[in-house]
Amino acid sequence: MINQFRNLNPINLLILFAYTFFMRMAIFADLPSSLQFEFLEPYTKFFIQIPLQNTFSPAGNVFFAGIIIFGQAILFNRVVNNHGLLSKPGYLPALLYVTASSLFMPFLILSPTLICNFLMIWIMDKFLKMGKASNAIMTMFDVGMIIAIGTLIYFPFIVMLAMLWFTLLLYRSFSWREWISGLVGFLTIFFFVGVYYYWNDNLSMFYKIWLPLTNKFPSVFKINYNDYLVLVPVAVMIVLATLQLRENFFRSFISTRKAFQMLFFMFLISIVSFYTKPDFRLYHFLLCVPPGAVLLAYYFSNAKKRWFYESLFLVLVFAIQYFLFV
Asked: Where is the signal peptide (predicted)?
C-alpha cells in the first residue's frame, strides 16, 4: 500500500477513494439513528441562517463527510508536493491524511472542524509560500481574514492567530507592517460582524463572543485511556518520523526545515486551542490532521525497510478498524 502511493500514478486516486470509504465501514455498519450537524457558531447564526439540522440523513451525513475528506486529501497532497516537503512527489500525503482523518468515530461525520480543515490547508499553503515572497503584508492580511472566517465556523480556530507571529519569526525579518497586517485582516471581518450586531441592538452579545478567551487552561483531564489506544501506532510513527527528520534536518533545504518547524507549531496550537470551548467534542482534534499527516507522510516517504513500514501501516489500519467496531 505504502509503496503504491509513493508514486504519482493516477490509479492511486481510485484506490484512495475506495480506501476512504473502507475506513468508514464501521460507522456504515452501525449508523446512529440521527446525526446533528452544527455548521456555525451561535453568534454567527445570528446573521447567517443555514438550516442544515435535518438536511442529511445519517447515511448522507457520513457519505458527504467521506467525500469532503477525499477532496481535502487531494488538495492537501497538492500543497505538500508543490512545496517539496517530501523526498519525492507522490500520493502518500493524501493516504496519510485519509488515515489520520479516520482515527475516531467523531472524525467520520460532518462537523465544523471538518469544514475548517479546508481553511487549515489554505493557511498552510499561504505560510509555505511566504519564504519565497518579497513582501508578506498581503499574505498576512489574507491569512488573518481566513482565520476570522474559521472563527465564525468554529471559535477555537481563533487561536490560529498565534501562527501569524510564529510564522513571521521563522520566515521573515522584523517588519511592523507585516506583524499587524494579519491582525488587521482578522479585525476587518469582525468589524463588519460588530456593525451588524450594533444595527440590531445586540452589541452586548457581540462582546460575549470573546469570553471563551478568558477560560483557564484545564489542570485536570478525565481520560479513558482505552479510547485512545489506537494512537499507540500513531505515536510510534511520529517518533520514527521525528528521528528520521532529525537525521536529515541539516541536509535538507532551509525552506524545508522552516516548513516542518512551522507545521510543528501549528500541530501544537491545534491541540491546545480546545480550552477555548468548554464543551468541545473529540472532533476538535481533526484540526491536528493536516500538520500531523505531513510528519507521518515524511516517515513513510523516507523509510527504507519495506517489510517494516508496510507492516506498521497495516497495524495502524487494523487498529483503527478494530477500535471503530468495538
From this structure: none
The rounded distance, in Å, linking the Cα atoms of 100 and 286 is: 8
- Tens of pLDDT, residue by residue over 236-259, are 888 888 888 877 766 666 777 888
CA–CA distance, 160 with 224 (Å, rounded to integer) = 28
User: How many angstroms separate the CA atoms of 127 and 259, rounded?
Assistant: 8
Annotated domain spans of the chain: 2-129+226-325
Residue 154, all three cell numbers? 468554529
